[in-house]
Specification:
- The chain has helices spanning 3-14, 23-33, 144-147, 176-193, 216-225, 246-249, 268-280, 297-302, 329-344, and strands spanning 39-42, 48-52, 59-65, 70-76, 82-87, 99-104, 107-114, 136-138, 156-159, 164-165, 170-173, 202-208, 229-237, 259-262, 286-289, 309-317, 325-328.
- By secondary structure, the chain is of the alpha+beta class.
- It has two domains: 3-68 and 174-344, Aminopeptidase, CATH 3.40.630; 70-159, Elongation Factor Tu (Ef-tu), domain 3, CATH 2.40.30.
- A hairpin with a 4-residue loop joins strand 10 and strand 11 (170-173).
- Helix 1 packs antiparallel against helix 4 and helix 7 (268-280) crosses helix 9 (329-344).
- The protein is globular, with a radius of gyration of 21 Å.
């Protein structure tokens, strides 16, 4: 990964943007991506849409959602502690001791998720994960009046930025799900912008919003773009760690390439084109089966208007929906390279009608 791409990735992961509150993420994404696009726009939901070779009639849409799981303040106690409800799928068992960022009208406020110390727990309490409603955020306020001077009901809360580089070209951060997708769809434009003379289709790279609460951004942006082909980029479960049943998840490891999928949500022709391109260009990849359409932007794009030829490319990810999600730099670059090379094989005459 070159230095510009790496700094973009780190900066993207440093942004905080739970579903419905993605403004800072999109501002950062558009600032970089506009360098490789003919045009870039935002829509009413907050999707950021960058297009390359806009005059071409055949349209390929790439969707990588930029929102992350988080919380929203629902109650402030008389003692100044904040209580929250989840935005997206939250595992309350991993929350105690986490550092968080609260987005307010005046700026960011730091806080921590607290619970009773282990010394004060009854034996039975120690055996159970504490429900989210029994946890709280401590911002150091003395009371409710003081807390209300800096935060308000409805303020969104994110895990605090915590990027770490690990061994073997791996890294850990909150928000890998799915700033990895937002990174890749921007990176694809970077690659294609240098080979624009060979590009025969229009490419719409979309940093979508509100995926974690129902694929909402992909639904509306795909309707507006009306693509012929749609490729979603998301994260997928890595199974190269203890106690993961590979019979259910598949055999997936960090660093061995993006995950390509087989199943109802994947157009047979497009799926084969991705695989054949990977083989021809010697890009490593892994397989995973999808028995159901799944909860990714692929599903929303596939059912747009009269239907879209769709596929899903996933970046292997450990510890999904925690603040220490872990991915590989190598897998990111190979994901972007594979998608770019696949798009370069497409022409307006390419048919994706299953045979």
């Amino acid at each position: 990964m070159d230095q510009e791409s790496k700094e973009f990735l780190k900066g993207l992961l440093a942004q905080c943007g739970p579903s419905g509150f993605e403004e800072s993420v999109q501002k950062f994404w558009t600032k970089r991506t506009k360098n490789y696009a003919d045009n870039i726009t935002r829509d009413v939901h907050g999707n950021a849409i960058a297009v390359l070779n806009e005059s071409a009639k055949f349209k390929v849409m790439l969707a990588g959602h930029c929102d992350e799981i988080g919380f929203i303040i629902s109650h402030i106690s008389e003692k100044g502690f904040l209580h929250v409800v989840p935005i997206g799928g939250i595992d309350s068992g991993v929350l105690p001791g986490s550092q968080v960022k609260i987005q307010t009208e005046k700026g960011w406020v730091d806080g921590i998720i607290g619970k009773k110390a282990i010394h004060l727990l009854e034996p039975e309490e120690r055996k159970k994960a504490i429900p989210l409603k029994d946890l709280w955020i401590d911002i150091g306020a003395k009371n409710k009046k003081e807390a209300l001077k800096v935060v308000s009901l409805g303020d969104p809360v994110s895990y605090a930025p915590n990027f770490l580089e690990l061994c073997n070209n791996n890294f850990s951060s909150k928000g890998c799900d799915n700033k990895m997708g937002a990174f890749v769809v921007s990176e694809v434009l970077k690659i294609l912008s240098k080979r624009k003379s060979s590009l025969k289709v229009a490419v719409y790279s979309v940093s979508t919003v509100q995926e974690e609460v129902g694929l909402r951004g992909a639904t509306t942006s795909a309707y507006g773009i009306d693509p012929d082909v749609g490729i979603a980029v998301d994260v997928g479960h890595a199974s190269d760690l203890p106690d993961v049943d590979k019979r259910e998840v598949g055999d997936v490891s960090l660093g061995l390439g993006p995950i390509l999928h087989l199943g109802p949500v994947v157009n047979r022709t497009l799926g084969a084109l991705l695989i054949n391109t990977a083989k021809k260009k010697k890009i490593p990849y892994q397989y995973c089966s999808l028995g159901r359409p799944g909860g990714t932007d692929t599903s929303a794009m596939q059912l747009t208007r009269a239907g879209v030829a769709t596929a899903l490319v996933s970046v292997p990810n450990r510890y999904m929906h925690t603040m220490v999600e872990t991915c590989s730099f190598t897998d990111l670059i190979n994901s972007a390279k594979l998608i770019a090379e696949t798009i370069l094989t497409m022409t307006p005459k390419t048919s994706f009608i299953p045979k």
